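Hi team,

Filling in the usual template for the complex we talked about on Friday. All components are listed, including any nucleic acid strands or ligand strings, so the model treats them as one assembly.

SUBMITTER: L.P.
PURPOSE: interface mapping
COMPONENTS: two
RESIDUES: 711
SEQUENCES:
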Amino acid sequence: MSAEAHWNALGLAIGIIFCISLGAIFLWMFMVPKQIPLAAARARRSVDAIKRILVPTVGMPYSERGVELACRLGEKQKAEIILTYVIEVPRTLPLGASMPKEEEKAREALSRARAIVELHNLPAFERIERAREAWEGILRTARDNDVDLIVMGISPNDGRSEALKRTANEVIRRSKWEVILDKPASRTP
Amino acid sequence: MSGKEEELRREVTVWGSYMWGFADVGADVFVAMGLVFAAAQGATPLVFAIAGGIYILIGLAYTELASAYPVAGGGQYFSARGLGDIWGLVAGSALLLDYTIDIALFATGSAGYLNFFLPYLFGVGIDRFAMDIGPFKGVNPLWCGETLLIIAVLTWLNVKGIRESSRVNEIIGVVVIASEVLLILLGFAMAWHPSLFVQQWKHEFPSAKDFMYGSSIAIISFVGLESISQAAQETRRPATIIPRTSIALIFTVFLFAVSIALLSLGILPWKQIAARVDSPLAVIAEAVPYIGPFAAPLIAFLGTIMLFMSANSGIMSASRLTYSMSKFRLISKWFDAVHPTYRTPMRSILVFSGIGALQTVLAFLSRNAMDVLANLYAFGASLGYLLVFISLFALRIKDPYTPRPYKVPLNLSIKRRDGIRVEIPVLGILGIIGVGSIIFEVVLTHEIGRIAGPIWVLGWILYYTWFRKRNGLPAFSSLDHRWEEHQMEILESAEEYDLLEQYRIALAERDEMLEKRGVKSL
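RESULT (copied from the run log):
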């Protein structure tokens, strides 16, 4: 003989909660992430392998944009950001000659760059290098710090600084490390 | 571990992976509900919740290890890799004990539920066939014969290939889960009395001893998650799928167990359920309006199916475990052969199904075959799980490079002597305490388990020592298994390319660091 039905709201609620919970678990179980092809996985993980990024700065907005880009590239894997300002010492002066104005400019540029890095909670290291040519100092810093990537922000205005253009060209030509150049779009003249 | 060796086919899907586990764990709850009620009385839902808590810890450890090392072998592989060959053998033998008992116990249970229909079909109960054979009293040859027939059918399914046996599990699983959901929903809506539940909870609480005994039975009723690990080498994209199926299994089984316990306590007095330990769910279902008249045969039918599936999981897991053990030279390579057509480890399947059948025959020489088998079940499970927890710690320290798609939460970060940071799972410590207390309880209370269990493990250690000496291999130190190459092969064959790249990068960084320090290798 069948038992008599005894409807109750609390029991119904428990039953419904049970069904919803079970359904939610199964739904989650079946939502398996898509498979990643080998080539795509390699590309993806090779970026994760970047643990030390060198960012040369000259204290200009385009350099600081380079710092921001480097931080975003290194954010996921908590990469170290090495900031460098290379003081170009004229050949008429000894390499260690005092250049207080330039040194002050370097400190200010690095301080601004560090502030950007700190916004991303990434470890930042500052280096002031002296070299006859900026590219020499950049590549030396890269070698000494065993970096994985160099990110350089360059001037959007081609004609404005021949020296910067030359630095970028030399870094690309001579670097054995991965280099990313960021040249922002030119502003309307 | 040459790539030229025949590998197990990757045929198991998301649902298939889930069902390998559910077939084992789901059946345990089916059988144990009445026993737990008999001990834990009004506190049964609480006991299931506590036991479920320990089971969740075990489950999380398995999820991490099975997704990081998606190979056949489960606890044996984790122990061999984390602790060394001899411990791999000990864990393997403990789990083999469980799997062969799984085959025998659940095939016996399945035949037992089937015998429920005998009076309806032939007008006689199974007890009528019991007889005395020489010194053995109350032997039931019909029941024993039915059990052996079930084992034979399952052996054939498994030799034929994972596709067939996996498909059987998947279809039956849908039917069983749907039926249980219906029972719980209708039971709560139409038959559940909150006042009865509160009254039993408040006034029928067990003594501390009964409460502990109930907990130990409830914990054993959750055994079976290992099956998912055993199917890892045949699962498609195991590192992605296994964390999902394992976590889903942990929580769905927990939900089923606690919900059925809650439901039961609000439908019937606990004594009524405890009086029918052979078919407790049938008693509960009988009390549900509309489906009540059909409840007993329905539950008997479901019980037959569930236990059949569980025995099937036992065969599958035992054969895959020995396949793994032979690959790592813990047992003879003879077991390693894969069938040329079906590509299944045929010899392992036949040998360990045979041992399951032998255990069945021996158990049936006693008056209560299921009790004898259940006694041994507890020992193997708890020893195996303890070694898995210890391996979890060892592998976190020794092998922080293998990517872990899932990590047991709550970790303490510490520095290794070489400066590398590793994470120690706090929940793992709780797990060791939980499983350690089960072993203690088993040794104290399980008369057959505490003697036959260690003898079984000792027997395997003796065989292992003989086998290694005979083949000129070290008995008590580990072979060079080239774990790193093996890991890369596993991830590549599983098409887990993202994890493969992560692993390569981690190893390259480690090598670079060692090179800087002037160390050749770890």
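MY TAKE: Residues 1-5 of chain B have pLDDT under 50 and may be disordered. The beta strands of chain B are 131-133, 136-139, 411-415, 421-425.

Thanks, L.
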